[in-house]
Amino acid sequence: MAHPTAVNVPDEARPETLKDAPLGRESAYPEHYDASLLFPIARAANRGPIGIDDAALPFVGEDEWHAFEVSWLDEAGKPWVRVARFRLPAASPNLIESKSWKLYLNSLNQSRFPDQAAVQATLERDLVAAAGAPVEVRLLKLDDSELDVGRLPGECLDDLPISVEHYTPSPELLSADDADIVSEDLHSHLLKSNCPVTGQPDWGSVWIRYRGPRIDRERLLAYLISYRQHQDFHEHCVEHLFVDLMARVKPESLLVMARYVRRGGLDISPWRATADLEAEARASLPLRLSRQ
Questions:
Q1: Which of 79, 144, 152, 272 has CB 3.0 to 4.6 Å from 207, enough for a Cys bridge?
Q2: Residue 286 pLDDT
Q3: Pathway involvement (predicted)?
Q4: pLDDT: is 30 or 212 the higher one?
């Protein structure tokens, strides 16, 4: 996959939490292993504006990452290549900025390790230190069946004939029929948001499982499309979706999962859910879509 064109963003145009981040800057690719490349970002700074108390989260969840460009040398100098799967808990104090993660992983390319177990232990140690919480790490062979492509459950909304006027988050579009309580799965491949620094597009698919008042599907699709010009990280977009749906539709149970398209060898797939759907969310993973 081609790397995106470098975008140099002046410091004064950066969000405060990204003043020192490598995102949006020209970066030399490292020659040797360097854990200091990882750039953590406190989740609380982005949660506060949408009413989420970082000390009392209204959801459970994870950020699942796949890294398709993981390679290192063994002690004889022979290269090895794997796909890495990482899972960060939503309760971790920090997320990790994606470009810094890519640079960090590339720092392994010319570094020697005795075996795969040593690579995995190194990744776990460094990512735990950056995220501030346990991080699950798996290294998969390229023909591993866990990397097979799947499909989102439920009905796709994308063919509904709607008119669209909103391209920034518009929760007022959401509505539901309080007299009709249902359990259903809905999904859309029309999710798009933009990087908060470079403005580059982030394409994704979103899956919603809920029990509660029946959501108006046309209005839900219009709401999902309203993120099209919104600038935020993938993780915070999913949390924004979750918070808006809980506030406007008031479901008894809710799961929101986004599967974002790979960029720079990394894809990010956050999910947030009410506690009663945590087991169902985990049972649905691993899940990769054709665009990932």
A1: 152
A2: 82
A3: tRNA modification; tRNA-queuosine biosynthesis
A4: 212
